[in-house]
Design brief:
Elements lengths: L5 E6 L7 H9 L2 H6 L2 E2 L5 H9 L4 E2 L3 E2 L5 H4 L1 H8 L4 E5 L8 H14 L1 E9 L2 H13 L7 H10 L3 H10 L1 H9 L7 E5 L9 H10 L19 H14 L6 H17 L15 H18 L2 E3 L20 H20 L1
Parallel strand pairs: 1-5, 1-6, 2-5, 6-7, 7-8
Antiparallel strand pairs: 3-4
Helix pairs in contact: 5-6, 8-9, 12-15, 13-15
């Protein structure tokens, strides 16, 4: 009788569904998870990038656009085999954007390692996701205004809209992964709002993979907090003013702009949050209804309230107003913070 294969639970996104907080907790809890039979083949974002994503042709901001690196990919089965545990867990939201050939490669590597591939997709309603991902794209040099971004996403027009749909459209993501993983090994987690249930993503992931969620250390504070509407506008205008300068994203832009702005130079939540305006609610609801129906029809394992993906009428709110004086004040504060940071 053949030996039973270990499961590899691959959490592939979506972005902005509590992934940063969950991953920080997992990586702080390697030993505790090992004691309950869960092994983490890759610990930390750099380990995922160098060990899996870049060998598959992933590039910062651009996504999976390069060629596979066969020699580096050859290391993946050994990494999986050498990781102790009754079951394995890896988490990286960039995997939501994989191409069909990337899925095929990952499935083949898992098979060579003697593990059974299971896919976990975390999702939230788009009344939360659209404004959240806009702020994430600001870190990728987006210079479009939020109203223009909203229109482009609705019309599926342009590079940023294409990227949003590729990393947030649950059915499309499930279709791509479905070429290698059938519904019986596919789990959809509906993540509750952090404000209503900050433990939700931890509890539901533990339920799926099979570990007590309290073994995972909760990171202190918000790992990937949002900017307010004014601070988002400051970030956007900096991107616009930069133009073609700082062309190397990793070496130039990330060092000079992204990381300083994300870690204290630009104030977090100092102004009201971005919202989904009422004029965009209907198409978001209609898309969510189609998603819910498809997920139910295909028989994926669902954890959480699937109907919560359809935002209610109260989910949409007019954009908070601000004026140029607000932007100027936030810009001066950011400049002062930047100067102090550089000095220290």
């Amino acid at each position: 009788m053949s030996e039973q294969r270990r499961p590899l639970w691959l959490h592939v996104g979506c972005s902005k569904t509590g992934t940063s907080s969950l991953q920080a907790g997992l990586w702080q809890s390697v030993e505790a998870l090992a004691e309950v039979g869960v092994g983490l083949p890759y610990v930390g974002r750099p380990a995922h990038f160098t060990g899996l994503l870049r060998p598959l042709g992933w590039r910062p901001v651009e996504g999976f656009v390069g060629e596979h690196r066969p020699r580096k990919l050859e290391e993946v089965p050994d990494r999986l085999r050498e990781t102790a545990g009754e079951r394995l867990l890896a988490s990286n939201e960039d995997l939501a954007e994989v191409r069909p050939e990337d899925v095929d490669a990952i499935a083949a590597l898992a098979d060579r390692a003697g593990v059974d591939l299971h896919v976990v997709l975390t999702v939230r309603d788009w009344a939360q996701q659209v404004p959240s991902d806009y702020q994430q794209f600001l870190k990728h040099r987006l210079a479009d205004s939020y109203p223009d971004f909203l229109d482009d996403v609705r019309e599926r027009h342009g590079v940023w809209a294409d990227q949003f749909w590729r990393r947030q459209d649950a059915v499309d993501i499930l279709d791509r992964w479905g070429r290698a993983v059938d519904p019986s090994r596919t789990h959809v987690i509906v993540v509750p709002s952090y404000s209503s249930d900050p433990e939700g993503v931890f509890d539901l992931m533990g339920e799926v993979v099979g570990f007590p969620s309290d073994v995972v250390t909760r990171p202190k504070g918000s790992v990937n907090a949002s900017f307010g509407v004014v601070e988002s506008e400051v970030f956007r205008r900096v991107n616009l003013a930069l133009g073609d300068r700082l062309p190397d994203y990793k070496k130039d832009y990330s060092e000079a702009v992204r990381w300083p702005f994300a870690h204290g130079v630009l104030a977090r939540s100092a102004s009201p949050k971005l919202t989904l305006p009422p004029e965009h609610l209907k198409w978001v609801q209609e898309h969510a209804e189609r998603t819910v129906a498809t997920v139910r029809e295909r028989g994926y394992h669902v954890h959480g309230d699937l109907d919560a993906l359809v935002p209610g009428e109260d989910a949409a709110k007019p954009l908070p107003p601000y004026d140029e004086a607000d932007v100027a004040e936030a810009s001066i504060t950011a400049l002062a913070n930047y100067a102090a940071r550089k000095r220290s």
